[in-house]
Amino acid sequence: MPATRKIFEDVYEVARLIPFGRATSYGAIARYLGINARTVGWAMNSLPTGHDVPAHRVVNTKGILTGAAAFNPESPMEKLLKEEGIRVEKNRITDFQKVFWDPSEEL
DNA sequence: ACCATGACGGTGT
DNA sequence: GACACCGCCATGG
Questions:
Q1: Residue A102: closest CA among A9, A25, A33
Q2: Nucleotides on strand B with an atom closer than 7 A to protein CB?
Q3: pLDDT of A4
């Protein structure tokens, strides 16, 4: 790929590798790609409609579902995570440490 | 090249 | 645990 390859593509690629029932943080992905966390968040915010990226598994370092607002009211991020066995309470993953997935270590 | 914006992170109170 | 600050880097106008 040309040098003009967008960081976004890398972010999406890593996000797609997140295993079922696990979640990671923007910072973890950022560190893995060598960029800052804000850029990762921005990449997710730029996700087009109909993307195939499990963005609901990407939260901030506190385990808070900051991007829940970006999801359709019909597909609550919270519910999606609970379906995967992740305990969520008021937009916050209570057992984040348990389901945390670090690309820098697991990848 | 400059300025504003942002699904964030770490530390201190 | 909640809140406030400041630092970081990429993209767009």
A1: A25
A2: 6-10
A3: 43
Rounded to two decimals, the pTM is: 0.91
Q: Taking 80 as the threshold, does the pLDDT of residue A5 lie above it?
A: no
Query: DSSP assignment, residue A18?
Result: P
pLDDT value of residue A1: 47
A63 CB inside 7 Å of strand B? no
Cα gap A69→A64, rounded to integer Å: 12
Separation between Cα atoms, residue A69 and residue A72, nearest integer Å: 8
Does the nearest atom of strand B lie within 7 Å of A26's Cβ? yes
Query: Does A3 have pLDDT greater than 50?
Result: no
